[in-house]
Design brief:
By secondary structure, this protein is of the alpha+beta class. Helices cover 30% and strands 33% of the residues. The chain has 3 domains: 7-116, 3-Layer(aba) Sandwich (Aminopeptidase), CATH 3.40.630; 141-290, Aminopeptidase, CATH 3.40.630; 296-394, SCP2 sterol-binding domain (Nonspecific Lipid-transfer Protein, Chain A, 2-Layer Sandwich). Strand 4 and strand 5 (78-90) form a beta hairpin.
């Protein structure tokens, strides 16, 4: 993200980038205290992400901050620019006075200035981020497979040890090809890929790939649970398979570990390919985390995402947004050939306008909640024609986000 000048948030707070090493140390202390993380780790993290850190100041004192991750998120087969927000921390001496809300408001208006489409985060509280215009928009699903239930699985095909240097680009190509048709999955940046290949505590990370005609057909990256203890769990950091043969080959690898490993745990969507190939019942599925999304720029959000190729639709929205005022008002969205044209509405309101606030729009946009469900909850108002039309536009698989940031 480009650096910007500090801007006044309230009469007593300003917002902007890090200026000095003292600023960084102050924020590192607040991050360490807020998230119970070693101070040195926070310093290293903030140094690595320095250009993407934003802080709130009371006078010259840094009283809080956050980190922005510039990446993408797939909707309708296309990557939408997404800024992930992480590490929102406020000094205990400044909490309860609206500092976090002001920090988020300033962040979102800066992102709107930059033309960013959406923003996502994993919340520590729904209240704060709901006030900033975020809404629950999907989940991160965890699978826990008892390996004893696998029995002996046989599979054909080569499997070899992963070489992160030589195989890195092939992994990225396979992941992106599979992720682009899974709503909510991240179009990963380098930070997310580093999380795949490196354990934050320096633990050994193991990986295997399944070669294919066009590169690789699958891969798995994992750690072995607690050091020097067994039986242990296979803690999967990333696993992707392009076909059934590759899926069974990964499961055969798990099966071969069953005398020393109790479980394999991984993250995926509700249509996870490994789950579909497990031969017996007993795999546990849970919501590991819930993620929230915020529409930052309505025009960018609807223009950048994709739609079903045969979709032809006219949608009129009347949106309220109490944080990013430039999103407020009436919008016309014309969808044709898998793409949208977005413009401000002029003239009188049509009979089939959909009225909603920016939070409901987020849940609708990802497909987490349908237009009719939002109407039942009182979050959307519109005619039956408008609701039906909107249902068709956003119909599809439930969104998920296996990655954490």
């Amino acid at each position: 993200m480009p650096r910007v000048d500090s801007r006044t948030v309230t009469k007593r707070l300003t917002f902007g980038p890090l200026r000095t090493s003292a600023d960084l140390e102050a924020l590192a202390y607040q991050e360490s205290l807020a998230f119970n993380t070693p101070h040195d780790s926070c310093v290293s993290w903030l140094r690595a992400t320095r250009d993407h850190v934003r802080v709130a100041r009371a006078g010259s004192e840094v009283i809080g901050g956050l980190v922005q991750y510039d990446m993408g998120q797939f909707f309708g087969g296309r990557s939408v620019r997404n800024i992930g927000i992480a590490g929102v921390a406020i000094s205990p001496t400044a909490r309860g006075r609206g500092a976090a809300k002001s920090l988020m408001a300033a962040t979102l208006n800066e992102l709107h200035d930059a033309g960013v489409a959406v923003s996502t985060l994993y919340p520590t509280t729904f209240t704060l981020y709901g006030r900033a215009g975020y809404a629950v928009a999907g989940h991160r699903y965890q699978y826990r497979l008892p390996l004893a239930k696998l029995g002996r699985i046989t599979a054909t095909g080569e499997i070899r040890r992963l070489d992160p240097g030589a195989d890195g680009e092939a992994l990225k190509r396979l992941y992106r090809r599979l992720a682009m048709n899974r709503p909510g999955w991240l179009d990963r940046n380098e930070h997310i890929w580093e999380r795949v290949h490196n354990h934050p505590a320096g633990r050994d990370v193991h990986g295997y790939v399944i070669p294919g005609d066009d590169g690789i057909d699958g891969y798995v990256v994992y750690t072995l649970g607690e050091v020097a203890r067994y039986p242990y769990d296979l803690q999967i950091r990333d696993v992707q398979t392009a076909n059934r043969q590759a899926t069974r080959r990964i499961l055969a690898l798990f099966s071969d570990c069953r005398t020393l490993a109790r479980h394999a745990t991984w993250y995926g969507g509700l249509d996870d390919s490994l789950l579909l190939e497990v031969p017996e019942v007993g795999t546990e599925i849970s919501v590991a985390e819930t993620w929230m999304l915020r529409i930052v720029d309505i025009a960018a959000a609807f223009t950048e995402r994709g739609y079903a190729p045969g979709t032809s639709a006219h949608l009129e929205l009347d949106v309220t947004d109490d944080v990013v005022a430039r999103n407020e008002g009436r919008w016309i969205i014309e969808i044709e050939g898998g793409q949208a044209d977005v413009r401000r509405a002029t003239g009188e309101t049509g009979p089939d306008v959909l009225r909603l606030d920016i939070r409901a729009l987020a849940s609708l946009y990802t497909g987490h909640l349908s237009a009719r469900r939002l109407a039942e909850l009182g979050s959307v108002q519109g005619s039956a024609v408008a609701l039906d039309r909107t249902e068709r536009i956003f119909a599809g698989p439930l969104p998920a986000m296996p990655d954490y940031f």
